[in-house]
Amino acid sequence: MDGREVSLADVFAAHAPRLLAFALLLTDDHASAEDLVQEAFARLHGRTLDDPAAAAGYLRTTVLNLSRSRLRRLRTARRHERSPAATFPSAEESVLDRADQDEVLVALRSLSPRQRQAIVLRYWSDLPEPEIAREMGLSAGAVKSHTHRAMTTLRRLLEAER
């Protein structure tokens, strides 16, 4: 193995589990989340990063953008279906066994894709608003707006469950 392969293996070992959990929050199933993470690492392999510390941000942004593309494709496919798609429990629901986590995931899925992304980046990835804005390609004000609206919706949905 050359130094690049070892370096990529180190980056994979350090970031893959957290990226997979991140992707699970953005998608509907475990297989799709794994595909997103795999594709992000494949794209990283073809790039030269000046700063190895930038790999985590590059991978997170790539997973986020790939999930957006996936959602757009699914939305288009569903628009052209003649019968409604069957509803199956997501991988998140089977992995997370606590009822309160299940309620949060259900509520999270009801958010718009942008609101969900803003919430996941802010509260799960613990990123500051300027970094979220950069990753989502939005202004800081738009990130605040998406986050505020998402939190209002989540509060309403979770209070209705109780």
Helix-strand blueprint:
Layout: H1 3-26, H2 30-45, H3 55-80, H4 91-95, H5 99-109, H6 113-124, H7 129-136, H8 140-161
Can you walk through the features of this model?
With 162 residues, the chain is mostly helical. Helix content is 77%, strand content 0%. The protein folds into two domains: 1-86; 96-162, Winged helix-like DNA-binding domain superfamily/Winged helix DNA-binding domain (Arc Repressor Mutant, subunit A), CATH 1.10.10.10. α2 crosses α3 and α7 (129-136) crosses α8. The longest helix is centred in the middle third of the chain and has 26 residues, at 55-80. The chain starts with a helix and ends with a helix.
Question: What's the helix-strand series?
Answer: HHHHHHHH
Task: Please summarize the sheet with the most strands.
Answer: none
The number of distinct β-strands equals 0
* Helix segment tally: 8
Low-pLDDT runs of 5+ residues are 1-6
**Residues in helix, %:** over 70%
Mean pLDDT: 82
Distance between the termini: 55 Å
> Helix- and strand-based class?
mainly alpha
Tell me the overall shape. Answer: globular
Q: Total domains, how many?
A: 2
Rg of Cα set: 17 Å
